[in-house]
Design brief:
Blueprint lengths: L1 H28 L2 H22 L3 H13 L3 H26 L3 H9 L5 H7 L2 H16 L3 H26 L3 H32 L7 H32 L2 H27 L1 H9 L4 H31 L9 H26 L3 H26 L1 H27 L6 H21 L3
Helix pairs in contact: 1-8, 1-11, 2-6, 2-7, 2-10, 2-11, 3-4, 3-7, 4-7, 7-9, 8-9, 10-11, 10-15, 10-16, 11-13, 11-14, 11-16, 12-14, 13-14, 13-17, 14-16, 14-17, 15-16
Length: about 450
Amino acid sequence: MIRNVLLLFSGNLATQLLSLLSGLIVIKMLTVQQYGEYSTITSFVNMLVLPLAGFFSLAIRRYVPLYLKQDEHSLISGLLRLSLMYSLILAIAFPSLLIPLSGWISQKIIHAENPHYIQLYALTVPLLILASPISALMLGMEKFREYTHAVNVFPNIARLTHLLLWWAFLPYQMAGAILSFFTKSSLNLFLSWRSVKKDLFRWLATGPLYRTEEWVRFSLPSFLRFVVSYTAQNIGVVLLGNLRTHTDAGIFKASSIIVMGVHSLTLAFSSVVLPRLSKEILHGGGLDTTGRVSLMNLMGASAIIIPFVLLGNFILGLLGQEYVRGYPVLLIMSIMLLLEAWTSAWQGYITARGRTDLNLITYSVSSTASILASYLFIKGVGIYGAAWAIVVESVINASMRGMWIRMLSGRIPVDMRHILIISSMILLIFLRLRWTGAF
């Protein structure tokens, strides 16, 4: 178990680092306006595609190992047939809609100059959709090493290589940036398919049994949570491109990509302790471990944020002088990073107690609030409003996680060290914001 967890953690860590490097290269490849348009297109299409693509993924991960243990191959066949048919329909429907409507989407929603970039990105959509159930099947079959290679490591290396070669030798940099996703998704689908095809064909050859209502009922809550949370993560870029300019969208995205990269690393660290928490909770413990992990996350995030606070202008200037205007965004989103690093272990404790329903409530409330705040704040103060909307989400997350963990355990795992660090860091951030004139 521990070996598998560490294997997945290392793969997730490699993914985050490679994605961050790829994102920084794309920023250097494109002008600020182009990067804003690129970010708006990919964020808008992904908001539509990714939540729907993963509808049955959790059900596959949940039920395939269960049915294997019970030797119910007919039910595996039914679940896989249903999920693959669903994915095939989506894989045909989305490009069939996106390509003809690309001109209208460009004009009315994204305000992009060239609808052909939407059409180009639409080529990646079938690959994203078809890879989702196959990747989930790898986890359901406990092919953790194969999953790490096929989903996390090699496709991201391929994308990074694609970007480096295109940046160095080829024109039409915008097209190269978009097509890097096609390179990544193609390899992901190929490697995932190669890993499971033998078992997949064997199960599909078996007469199917269907429990469609049960599978849909199981998948729906996670799907709805993902729709709301993923929309909240991407709506800021889309609204900036729609209500403001692509330059604003590019500056915001460049600033946020640095913070979100660090945020993903802290989440990956927290996920490693979940198996340990589950074991300790069985014996009536777990709360002290949660407090220690929370403190370590908070100290690690603070160590990274201090250079952001002191050297943020310089860091963004390395991407291009136009991006320095996003320094207040970097500062504001650092508040989100602090709060999420501090309380992500609390969420792990709640999950380990088996109360995933409480996490669903938390994300539903906070993400909905973030979407509404994004629209209101962006209309008012532009890129700073997009950043403050994300802080609103993190404040609600932290508050509700604290409420749930106190309900489950009787207390919140916080001591004076937590309070001193978080209050000092937030004071430092606000003083720096005041210095920039953005607060």
